[in-house]
Q: What sequence folds into this?
């Protein structure tokens, strides 16, 4: 059974999901693929309560610029292919970026797999902690993000990514600011 908790962030409320003492989801309010029936209830177990508290604390420290590497225990729920992609995302360092093609190549996949890689990146259920926001389009353009491009821009700016400029923002987008 899943346990849920809502925590505040500078980018809006974040829903945390845990099961069996491992974090299985981090979703911004209004995010694509947000769990349809999620409600913040008392955690199902003490282990879930601990992992939810740890995730909230680590996210808070991240947003304050005090944490670069998450240690909260996570568990992926998806296909083997998705697991490979999500694990590769975890290898992209704080403040660094990659592209869908580079991610595919790093896994020994041909360029024709870039679209499948993009699909797996987009379905990442552990936003921020599994840093899918660090993936850019082939030209360095800020492409989609399930939590919204404004949030992606804010996350990259928080991490000090120098290439995040107004010229890379999609037309009509205004980046959220982190206070």
A:
């Amino acid at each position: 059974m899943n346990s849920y908790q809502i925590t505040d962030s500078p980018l809006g409320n974040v829903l945390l999901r845990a099961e069996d003492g491992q974090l299985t989801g981090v979703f911004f309010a209004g995010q694509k693929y947000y769990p349809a029936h999620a409600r913040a209830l008392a955690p199902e177990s003490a282990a879930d309560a601990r992992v939810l508290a740890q995730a909230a604390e680590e996210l808070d420290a991240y947003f304050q610029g005090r944490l670069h590497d998450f240690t909260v225990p996570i568990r992926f729920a998806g296909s083997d292919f998705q697991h490979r992609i999500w694990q590769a995302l975890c290898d992209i360092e704080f403040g660094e970026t990659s592209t869908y093609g580079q991610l595919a190549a790093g896994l020994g996949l041909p360029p024709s797999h870039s679209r499948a890689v993009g699909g797996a990146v987009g379905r990442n259920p552990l936003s921020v902690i599994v840093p899918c926001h660090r993936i850019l389009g082939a030209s360095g353009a800020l492409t989609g993000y399930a939590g919204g491009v404004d949030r992606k821009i804010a996350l990259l700016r928080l991490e000090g990514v120098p290439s995040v400029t107004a010229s890379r923002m999609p037309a009509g987008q205004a980046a959220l600011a982190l206070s």
Remarks:
- The beta strands are 3-7, 14-19, 22-28, 98-99, 135-136.
- The first helix runs from residue 46 to 63.
- Helices lie at 46-63, 80-90, 100-106, 114-122, 149-158.
